[in-house]
């Protein structure tokens, strides 16, 4: 029951990085209401500044994901320099095929070749941006689907999706990747074109080695054993990235670890088990929607949750676990798991943070920094959209 | 297996009425995108006109529910006269406690007495409107809840809810009712203050005889046997109204009967069994969200779905069913149910409609009427909000 | 809205066959209680006789699936002859790795090589039986998994599963197939080794061309769009068979089409769309659990449900559907679907049955046949187990 | 972040008691297989002895629930003396209306008055037993329901249930209670007669003040906010008892706290908030099914889980929480919750146990006690049934 974080564990934690999304700092909400908040960024440069605050207080968030077209700027080299000045880098590029009227009935899957063309071209533009920002990953979340049985030809759409992805994939350079996200439902309410990991897997395997699956922890049917999927995708060599968040019901996009901490622990145990920790092939990102809580502290809380839970996962006594498993000792094996989970790693992590020149309590440090007061005063009329895929 | 609709059945169908919501004709969508549509009403008068089209082609939708403040007009008697000119009446008044910034952390349940006061006053204003429109029912759907464990004191909120409702209830006149809707989740993602029928029931029973439960068919946990709740609320004398719609996943707000027609059948079978059909105590309404389909035809399709399924429910041979139930004949009893469900009532209903001076095919009749083309041309810049509770 | 079953449709229906399971005629139940029924078969020969009754009254069930070891007999050629005398054939062989004490912690996935050996050998024995019975398919449903986090090493089990399956697959002759079933949960309550179609697909693809996925309609998470999976597996060329049944909650194993007829319709629409109907690669089977209803009539009802729903799926006006889809006519496309679904095909099917020398009403014909009374009297002490995977 | 358990907290923990069920020590399993275990009790006296071991090592389980008829003995005063000799008392009496052939289609709800009579008489017999054992509570879990729409008249059954319960309730003495459990589904797969807390509440309110609701933590629809129901039933004064266990999917009956520890924490937080802790009106019990794990250690683990989580719930800084709630500080309020949850109370509890003459590590102490080895050797042929309601 020791809380001792060994040098090996601390070494692993030191390497850990969690990408934060630019859109986390904009306004977001539900279909019923988007509550505005003071200090909302007015442009992408300000979003990067907010993200840099998360990294400054935690040392955990060195890169920022961008969303195109929301984060289109005239001069990406200026944006890149701005980020680097603030100690962060530009990361994954996310495409958007759900906010144009043209995409009402699909984008990469649309019956109409002209609309598919437009959607493919949008992705090619995203790759142009990647070339400028130095980003490795193009992440595709498809909002496409249908609301009523019969509305769409699911099979034809699946075939067209593959064709569209092939054209996009062909445009990637050798050090770039395509990461395809799946989602159980929403905004489509009958069928979704990439609804499960199996579909994403089958689609990316047909593309090539640099096509991977993105696992968003909120995009599964009720009751799904998510750590099993983590295990399977790592085993199949296709786990490209995580979109972390948490949920009680549907895609609630709450702070990672908030709804079911033990599930996050189990996921990270499988990540470690399968060699996915600090593995460049497996990117850790947040994708959340801060509807009612403060946004920058929400992101700080989130990366800390990932860090704390990773520490617990690393504490797991794998030798004892394997022994109990081999012996068919159900309660013994479970006890080894629970011992790691229930260990309070927070004091040791606070000490370790201080030893690295970081605040022991990043939440308190941010609150004391005056940053929020400053942006509340300075940024008038900011309404940069965010959302919560 | 007869499709014969007896005079008794036709008599019941003739009395049937399904209230349509004013907000069905405005734009609605998801948190990701609201797709605009041509012909969107520019004011409440135009929404009433659209609703009247539904009734004109079906004879099924004689009343229109209003939403306050969306449908506030300077002169409700003018609105009332406008409606009556078009052959419909103003119906249920729906309150709104989810679109003001003040309500971020609650309305009738809020910790702050001033915000509760504001929310109560809003409902008193709604009752003022009811007095002017001649509406009987005040329907309250509470979007209130919390997103994170600890965020709110659920117990205190429950007590405050009761106090707030008592004050509202006290203002009703003797022929008016309060109808309290429950919803499993959304927009709150951890706890909802009225999440299930039990809570709504416990709350309204404490108010008095004219407080009832509203059952929205999309507001339940996965797998819930909704017809059981219909049965129970009828048994307890507290089923005040239905909000009809359908869903595959969460509160998808699809067209009633579209996702699971057999469920709609079972619900209507229990309505008939429990004396809820054409019973003034049990109001039938639609509450849907036409995100991708045409709105007026969507409403026509919906009221027809209710009518057709009611006809099937009335076809049920209750004597044969009771006999098989008494005999423990599982397959026999189920066969009696399925026989009614699988009977194609559509041709007989088409004939009967014609005999009453209504179009045999209301969908085709609306399409041929030229109304849609007219409003598409006339209404420029309409953006009356709708949504999908 | 015509109910006309064209010669083309009738031709397709004439070819249709639904395999019935030998275990449907034995006793089955829940963990709480297995209710015995009169007439329970005392051996495999009597199960075949019961299955033959289903075929005799419907012409739809020409083959019977066997379960090893439940259906082990000394002389399979005698069983084969017995079946053929009754007008049916022996079909799929189902293995059993869940009823031995050894398998408490796994079979094909077990940590202990000796237990894996035993489980593999059991499958080799099943293939021996297949050689004798002339069966094509070896169906593997794995009950394996764990109840507590930490109890099992999911990743190691997945690798061992692949090794075990490879050995089994290697033993198949060139005209035999391995069909791997997946199941969301139960009897394991934390992790299941083949929980979803993606896992089954990834496992069988690694085996070879004659390894396929079995889709049991009751083995999915709540809300899963099953017809999407049907579409996808057909597209990927790996849909080996259906286990038909229905459910409201978990793996309830109710009569196919009983819980959600419209879902069965949508599944069959995708089967037809994807070329899976009367395609020898895609076997139709029942796998149900008649806990409270009569067993032989339960099977008759089931194959009729599949037939009736197939007729409706064949009625679908695919040209009109495709036109509406291309036009983005959501309501129009859905109307084409619903028109086929709501068409009452039962009278036409009854006529057609009679024209082929079959009873118009197979349920009534069976009831009138005296068979049930005969077996109730003759079979004393029958307790052949059944269950409901 | 202190782990300091104050004297007040320890005082509360000292009073805590969790009733254990006699059937936890018998064999249990799924419909697919019941795995036997060595040491299975051969009669009720041996079950009591096993239960006493749980109490001896934990000081937490002073009473044992009995199940009639499984635990019927000729001389209950001898059983009572046996229990008291071992330091425990006989507790709640559980009735059984699901294992007789007569009850296939219902018991207290059956259409046939003779079968209702039998079921009522069984409950009257249970009350006779209560008089002999000195038990306060009669707990009724009804397995009743139906598998197919139409099979049963849900409304008639609800009325008959009320009549049956009234007769049973009338037989209780003034210090006895009736506790009615609800369950979402299983063993019935379409409708269940008491499926939700609302139904149980409505039924018991009609009986009288000594009729209460039993909340089994595994008996809800996916996603249900159970702590909300705890809050509501405490508010309404009708939370009679808990049946603790945990689940990932359906009524999995796993060890309490094993599947979602944070949920157990939230439940206990509401128990404390609502005055339910160490309140004689609110009985804490286990109802679990040890299918693959050792049974006595499984029970020890379970009561410890309840104790540890109660300690965390008592650590909650309610003043700080209320302050953050009033301030609308979402992240601050959540942080107060999480701080209590993440505090490692295990070392302090181990010390405290020792100070009271109990083993610091009850699991290890039991393993070292030799009891299991003794019963494995002594008890040959034990097959006392258990199950997992």
UniProtKB/TrEMBL annotation, chains A, B, C, D:
Superkingdom, according to UniProt?
Answer: Bacteria
> By its UniProt entry, which SUPFAM superfamilies does this protein fall under?
Xylose isomerase-like
Alphabetical UniProt keywords: Isomerase, Manganese, Metal-binding
Q: Name one GO biological process term.
A: rhamnose catabolic process
Molecular-function GO term, any one: metal ion binding
- NCBIfam families attached to this UniProt entry: RhaI_grampos
Tell me the protein's name: Rhamnose isomerase
Organism for this UniProt entry? Leucobacter chromiiresistens
